[in-house]
Amino acid sequence: QENFLIGFTKDERNALLALKAGFHNAFLDEKWQSKNCYDWFGLKCNGTVVGVTLENLDISGEIKVDALYNLTALSILSFKNNLISGQLMDFSNNVNLAQLDLSSNNFSGPISPSLVDLVLLESLQLQENRLTGQILPFDQPSLKEFNVSNNNLSGPIPNTSILQSFDDSSYDHNLLLCGPPLSTICGPSSLVNDTSSSSNNSQIGHILVIVNAVGLFILIILLFTVYKKNKQLDQKIIERENIAVKYDEEKGEEIPSELPSELPSEIPSQVIDNKAKATKQDQENLVFVDGVAEFELGDLMKASAESLGKGNFGNAYRVRLDDGRHVIVKRLRDLKPLSRDEFMNRLQVITAHRHPNLAPPIAYFYSKDEKLLVHKFTANGNLFNRIHGGRGTSDRIPFRWSARLAVAQGVARAMEYLHMNPNSQAAVPHGNLKSSNVLIDENNMVLVSDYGMTSIISNKISAQRMVSYRSPEYLASKKVSKKSDVWSYGSLVMELLTGKISSHSDPKDNTAVDLGSWVHRAVREEWTAEIFDLEIMVQRSAIHGMLKLLQLAVRCCDNSPVKRPEMSEVVREVESIKLPSVESESEEDLSADRSADRSVDRSLTDDSMSATPSR
Ligand SMILES: Nc1ncnc2c1ncn2[C@@H]1O[C@H](COP(=O)(O)OP(=O)(O)OP(=O)(O)O)[C@@H](O)[C@H]1O
């Protein structure tokens, strides 16, 4: 059989087929088949495989540690910007490797020691993963490019001449990394071996990272001592800045001109009130949106934290404060190059939006190396998990029609408010509405989160990663608008009604469907009633309301943006859908023998539906 292969050896082909089997990628399944290496997408071969370049393909799945053993001639390897998870591979057999780019994936665990022995290695790009443990003492003179920024690495940067020759951008955004070339000073705790690096139990998705609280505390004390020394000097600078702010306010200073045109041309009055407050606090601490400092940056840093995974704007952590309260901390990355003032201004615009169905950050932080958003923790998770979580297990609490309708109404109200905001004349598109950005709090209130981020995230990243339900015009222009929000709302409602995962929001899930086309087909082929999630289909008396909501969702997902309704019209329509009487719903629930969830469902419905002071 080997005689029939062109461009690569049998062992290499088998290794690549095994690699493909670990990925869930329809594109590769199609393109990596033939016996001719030259037909394979992303390969470079000359009798043997010398290059594998698979970038921006939404590849998910894991790579086995020994996956590259038989690719002995490999010189270039890039899996840049995919969703690959698992530990880094063993590169001991890839002695020709010169360029390795695994950036923007979900790799976890330690940096593979085999990389230190690659004497031809010129470029190592590991940024934007979830790597833990320490940086190894790379010192091969061949190394010209090196980047491990945006990981969870810890400890001192080894003092080799090669590693010290790269500037701090190669190391930025690793919360526990220290020593030159970073300006963070190493405390005694940094010298303790990081236990997380040796653990082999890194999981795909949500990894629990318990931060060594004692060690960190010592580090914080050291950092604060340094801060305090600078404080007196800073005080003078702050006083000067306050004078400058007052002067700007008197002149009626406007938001910098680079703001997107959809943002308000004037700063809302509430924002101006906050501005002086913010300027006093923001030098080295959190800026609280309501002006009351509930805790300090140091409290966050010494607390234990659980990683919730990597979102489009950075890593999110659930942090447990000393008083037992939980908050969510998001470490932002891929921002526009904003000055402190610009960042503060934009956050003030975002946080000035107040509506019972919105979840703005409660605090934010800016420093050269770190930008953070702090949110209240919402105890009942997100809508994605409510719709899809625990299916087929005894843990699953059925998600009934009344509760789903309440979600559709709450989200619609929040979106209408963002589009119309009566208080500040600010009208912003959300830009990233999806089920994981709809949160459910302890009172079962529906809260829309992560809105307005286009004003701070770099244009390239927003275009690549935001908007999980992609409208046709967004795919063409890469710009979010109110009408692309309406499309997203329609898709979210389809997800809510069908219980299907959208392939746009989770390409790696093989049960996912292109919701828009799937629903359109169902309507066209007249099997409409069958498309509803079984959990609500049993509620026969509600079928009329479900059909009405489905029709609205279909209109929101019209290919032509002008034919889509405005959010205000959507709110009117979704609120006109009546719930079936409590009696008939209860009877149906009883007949489905699933009455256990009644209290949960009714509370979700009642609470979120009653919270409508703005209407
Ligand atoms: N305030 C919060 N309370 C509880 N869970 C939250 C909160 N904010 C976010 N989460 C959850 O944490 C996880 C990560 O959130 P994050 O916003 O970083 O990413 P995402 O929602 O997956 O994507 P994107 O960055 O596009 O919004 C998600 O499952 C999200 O639902």
Q: Can I get a quick summary?
A:
Helices cover 35% and strands 14% of the residues.
Primary descriptors:
615 residues, alpha/beta, six-stranded mixed beta sheet, 19 helices, 14% strand, disordered C terminus, binds adenosine-5'-triphosphate
Description:
- One of its GO terms (cellular component) is membrane.
- It comes from Artemisia annua (Sweet wormwood).
- InterPro entries: Kinase-like_dom_sf, Leu-rich_rpt, LRR_dom_sf, PRK1-6/SRF4-like, Prot_kinase_dom, Protein_kinase_ATP_BS, Ser-Thr/Tyr_kinase_cat_dom.
- ATP binds at residue 330.
- Residues 606-615 have a biased composition (Polar residues).
- The protein has 615 residues and is α/β, with parallel strands linked by helices.
- Helix content is 35%, strand content 14%.
- The protein contains 19 helices and 20 strands.
- The protein has helices at 10-22, 26-31, 161-164, 195-198, 213-250, 269-281, 297-302, 340-351, 383-388, 401-420, 459-465, 472-477, 482-498, 515-524, 534-537, 543-556, 567-576, 582-591, 598-610; strands at 43-45, 49-53, 60-62, 76-78, 83-87, 99-101, 106-109, 123-125, 130-133, 145-147, 152-156, 176-178, 287-288, 304-311, 314-320, 326-332, 363-366, 371-376, 438-440, 446-448.
- The strands form four sheets. It has a six-stranded mixed sheet with strand order 1-2-4-6-8-10, with no helix packed on it.
- Helix 10 packs parallel to helix 19 (598-610) and helix 13 (482-498) packs antiparallel against helix 16.
- The longest helix is centred in the middle third of the chain and has 38 residues, at 213-250.
- The chain is globular.
- 42% of the residues are buried.
- The model is unreliable at 189-219, 229-282 and 593-615 (pLDDT under 50).
- The structure holds adenosine-5'-triphosphate.
- Adenosine-5'-triphosphate (ATP) binds next to strand 14, strand 16 and strand 18.
